[in-house]
Design brief:
Length: about 375
């Protein structure tokens, strides 16, 4: 695989920058940060209207004729602009999972709706008191004729306040890992309640509660008690996506600040910036490989874990190092008039704290890489 940017990519980049300059609004960034939303509905509708959400998807499921390379370049520009797209990222993960595990009816209804910007799917995995152990799920789904009745609670259901559906992990029988089943549950269904939870990173996530929620069996994704097989596919796509808090343009802006402040020639500063630049390039290459495997129809298992592990830890290293570089004023947030780089470093630092937990902890990523790529013995029994 050749990672060197080619002429077509450079052309896409220029076109994407022109598109971003015409359509992106600085107030969207301020709005997202102040609300802790990590998703902007106006931006989402814009991307759908321009066919960018549907680029590269099969035509039979609503794919557009927009060039996939141009769409990828636009998404990178949006990311570097400082706008989050968590609602689309989680939707994208679930759509890829549906392509491999969903029924034809689910594919022909949910995928086109999402590509038109009409459906936003959030993740309902984590439960109160269970941490990242999805096999400890206690939210129950009980059959009732051709329907299921769901009762339970989930934590960290990010973007549920703006979503249309939740990809909900439930327990349908007792065996720990083989008693799990997934459902696509409308968030406006009777018995669903969404409550805000605000994090130290400034993000508004949610606690969601399910009380006697009835869904048809057609909302089930995968086999009854087959949720563990579904979640293993879903997690591959979560780990193989571009890390939300790794901000390539931030280092360039910090380097410009260092030049303007007259400290860029200091050996310690120059070495730190060089190390961060190396981290950025490695993160880009690992992520590009995982995305290439996905685009080629494969599952970026170990590759996704490698990308997730490195980019999440590199983001934390970068933001901590930039706080040191910019000095005491770097902890000022965006509302402070003297905040260097408009408070972006402080915001990014707080947001990156969860990156080594979401989607699987760094310890789990290292175990997957050790067993799957290096052939080392597992440190715990295989999940069944």
């Amino acid at each position: 695989m050749d990672f060197t940017p080619h002429d077509a990519f450079a052309a896409h980049r220029e076109a994407a920058r022109a598109w971003a300059a015409e359509h992106l609004k600085p107030e969207w960034v301020d709005d997202e940060r102040l609300r802790g939303a990590h998703h902007h509905p106006e931006l989402h509708r814009l991307l759908a209207a321009h066919g960018l959400l549907a680029a590269g998807w099969p035509a039979e499921y609503g794919g557009s004729d927009v060039d996939r390379g141009f769409a990828d370049a636009v998404f990178e520009e949006i990311h570097d602009y400082g706008l989050a797209q968590d609602g689309w990222i989680t939707t994208w993960m679930v759509l890829h999972t549906l392509l491999r595990t969903g029924t034809e009816e689910q594919k022909r209804t949910m995928i086109p709706a999402a590509l038109r910007g009409e459906a936003i799917i959030v993740l309902g995995y984590t439960e109160p008191g269970s941490g990242s152990d999805m096999a400890a799920a206690r939210t129950r789904a009980v059959p009732d004729g051709d329907h299921w009745v769901i009762d339970g609670a989930k934590m960290f259901t990010s973007t549920a306040d703006q979503g249309t559906h939740v990809f909900l992990l439930t327990r349908t029988s007792e065996p720990k890992n083989r008693g799990l089943t997934f459902f696509l549950v409308p968030l406006d269904a009777s018995g669903v309640e969404v409550q805000p939870v605000h994090t130290v990173g400034g993000q508004r996530t949610n606690a969601t509660f399910y009380t006697g929620v009835r869904v048809p069996d057609s909302a089930r994704v995968g086999a009854v008690d087959g949720g563990w097989d579904v979640v293993r596919i879903a997690m591959v796509f979560e780990r193989g996506t571009r890390n939300g808090n790794h901000r390539p343009g931030l280092l360039d802006r910090a380097a410009s600040w260092a030049r303007d402040a007259g400290v860029v020639d200091d050996p310690g500063v120059a070495e730190q910036l060089a190390r961060l630049a190396i981290d950025e390039e490695v993160a880009r290459l690992l992520t590009a490989r995982a995305e290439w495997i996905t685009r080629d129809g494969g599952l970026p298992g170990v590759e996704g874990s490698m990308a997730k592990l490195f980019t999440s830890e590199a983001a934390q290293r970068q933001h901590a190092a930039l706080l040191d570089l910019l000095g005491a004023e770097a902890v000022l947030d965006q509302r402070a008039p003297d905040a260097p780089l408009a408070g972006e470093v402080e915001f990014a630092f707080r947001n990156s704290l969860v990156d080594t937990i979401y989607g699987g902890t760094s310890e789990i990523m290292r175990e997957i890489i050790a067993a799957g790529r290096l052939g080392l013995p597992r440190s715990r029994p295989k999940e069944r």
